[in-house]
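Reviewers asked in the last cycle whether our approach scales beyond single polypeptides. To address this, we selected a multi-component target totalling 642 residues and predicted its structure end to end. The input consisted of the following lines:
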Amino acid sequence: MNRISDRYWQITGCRSSEYFTKNQAYSMNQAGNIGADLFVISPEIALASAGFVAVILGLLSSRVSRHVVLAVALAGLASCLMFAWQLWDSNTAAFGSMIKSDNFALAFLVIFVVGAALSIMLAFNHREESYLLYPEFVAIALFATIGMILMAASSNLLVLFLGLETLSISLYVLAGINRTDEHSLESAFKYFLLGAFASAFLLYGIALIFGATGSLDLGALLKSGTGFRTENAPLLFIGSLLVVVGLGFKVAMFPFHMWAPDVYQGAPAPIAAFMSTGSKAAGFAAMLRVMFALTDAATSQLLQVFWVLAVLTMFFGNITAIAQKNVKRMLAYSSIAHAGYILVGIVAWNQVGLSSVLFYLLSYTFMNIGAFGIIAYLGSKDKEFCDFSDFKGLGHERPWLAIAMALFMFSLAGLPPTSGFLGKFYLFSAAVKAGHIPLVIIGVINSMISLYYYLGVVVVMFMKESDGTSRPKLKAPVVAVSLAAAAIGVLGIGFFPSRLMATLETLISHVL
Amino acid sequence: MLYNFATILVFLVFGCLFVGVNLLLSRLLQTRNPFPMKVSTYECGELPEGDSWIQFNIRFYVIALIFLIFEVEIVFLFPWAVVFKHLGTFAFVEMMIFIAILLVGLAYVWVKGDLEWDKPKQVPAQGLLP
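The resulting structure, written as C-alpha cells, was:
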C-alpha cells in the first residue's frame, strides 16, 4: 500500500518539490533502475516503435507501398521476439513489480506475436483495392499485441486492466476498420458496447479483490502484511468471480459469448482471425495470472464454477455451430467451443493441464488463423466468400487451398496427425489425471459433435460440384506464405510435440 | 475489514437522504406557476431556437477527440513541469517522446483532413507527399 502511494506521489508530483528533496535518494535509485526496467518491456517498445513507423509511413505518402509497411511490421515483430529471447529465463520484474516477464509471460508473448504476424500478412491485400487502410491496420494490430503482452506479463491487477483496455480499444477499431461496410460497423459497435460492459465487471472485481486483500499486487495479494484475513474469503471469491466474468468475455466462454458470432461474421476475415486467437489467449493468460495469486480455497471454488462453465461452453458452441450456414459464423461458435476445451485443462489444474492450455492456445492460433485465412484468401473486391455453398467445388478449382482448409478443419476437429489432436489429447489426459472423468467424457462427446460441421466444409469442397461462382484472382504471395506458415505450424506441432510440451511443463512448474 | 466499509454505507445513506429530503421539502414548500417564458431553456439570454433533442453533427465528436490529444498532454505536462528540476534529463527525454507520440496523432488528423470543418468527401491523396 505504502509503495503504491509513494509511486503515486512520485508520478504525479502532487506533493511538489519538498517531497522530492526528502526522497532524493529514493528517486535517484529509481532512475538508476529505469534502464533495467525498460529492458524488461523492450519487446513492447519494439512493437510500439514499429506501429508508429507504420502510421508515419502511411501519412507520408499513399505511394509508400504496402510492402514497406509489411516489412516494418514484420521487423518489429521479429525484434520483439528477439528481445523476448534475451529475457528468457531471466525472470525479472520491472517498475516496482508491476510487470513480470517470466517464462510464462514470454511463452504467451510468442503466441501473440505469431498470431499478429500471420494476421498482418493475411490482411496484405484483403479484398483488393477496397481495403485501403493497411498502415492503420498494421499499427493498431501491433498496439493490440502490446495490450495482450501486458496482460500476460501483468503482476498487478491495474496493469492487467491497462493491458485489457489497450487490447480492447484496438480491437473495437479493428472490427470497424472497413468504414463503408455496415456489417463491419455493426460488429464494431456491438463489440464496443458489450466490451465496455465486461470491462466494468472486471474493474468491479478488481475493486472487491482489493477490498478483501488490501493489495493489487498479484505477487503479494495474500502474503502476510497485506489486509487479507480468512473472514474476507467470500469477498475475495466474489471479486475473482467478477474478474472471471470480465476475462470470460474476452475468451468467449459460455454465458459471455453473445458478441462472438456477430463480431466475427461482421469483421473482415483477417481481423476476425486476429481477434479470435489473440484475445482468447490473452484472456486465458490473465485468468491464470489472477488464479495463481488466489488462495487455494478460492481457486478450488473457482474451478468448480469452471467445471460447469466448461460443460455449458462446449455444448453450446458445438450444438449451435451445427446449424450455421456461414463458415465465419460457424468458426465463431467453434471458437466458443474451443474456449470450453481449454477450460477443461484449467479445471484439471495440474502441471500437464496448464501447460496443455498453452499448447492448445498455440496450436489454436495456427489452425484458426489458417481457417479464417482461407476465407480471407477467397474474398474478392465485392464480397467475402464465406457461405458453405461458396466452397462448392473448391477442391477441383484450387486443390492446394482446399487441402489446406481440410487440414485446418481436421485440426479444429481434433483428428491426428494435427496439432489440434495432440492439444485435445493433452487437455483431456490432464483432466483424467486430476480425476475429472465425466468432464472428459463430455469433452469427447463434444469433439464428435464438432466433427459433423468441420467435415461438412470438407465434404462441400471435395464432393460437391461448383455452381459456377467466379473465383477471385490469386492473391499476393505473402498471403499464401501466411497460410503455408499456419499449415506448417499445425503439422509441425502435430508431428513434434514433445519438445514444446516439455518446455511448457517446466515453465508452468515455476509458476504453479 | 468489512467493518471499514461501514463508513461508505453511512455516506451512501446520508447522501440519498440529503438529496431526497431536500427535493421533498422543496416540493412541499414551492409555489407552482409555470408560464412559457419560465419553462423555456435558458441560453445565455438568447431566445431559444428549436428543440435541444436534435442530432449533433458527427464532426463535433472528431473535434472532441482532437481536443483529447491536447488535454491528455496537458494533464501529464503540468506535474512534470512542476518537478522538472528534480527529474533531470531522463524525464525530459521521456516527455519529449511522449509529446512526439501525441504529435503523430495530431499530424494524422491533419493529413487526413479532419481539421477542416468541411472535410473533403474523398481524401484521395492520403499523404503529405504528392
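The first strand of chain A starts at residue 92 and ends at 94. We regard this as preliminary and will revisit it once experimental data from Aim 1 are available.
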